[in-house]
Write the structure tokens for this entry.
Amino acid sequence: MHWREADEIIRSQFEPSYVLWRVGTEEELARGGGKYPSSPVLSGLSQVSYRDRSWRNGSITLQLNEGIVTEVSWYFGGPFYMDL
């Protein structure tokens, strides 16, 4: 699935508190050395995380290769989020 389709599906379910992009090679992603652009970068390897800071308290992360979703992961810690 292309990133734009996945983005529409995710946003139809909830409005993210913020969206975090990370780009770079797989090694840079593992080291956390990627950059955080203000708009999508759909060439090469990249990752985008949709953060939900509502009562759901979690995130959905898409791994992309040339703008195509190759992996989806998520984590929702539960309804007890406290913003300190």
Q: What stands out?
A: Residues 3-76 form one domain. The chain has a mean pLDDT of 81. The first helix runs from residue 3 to 13.
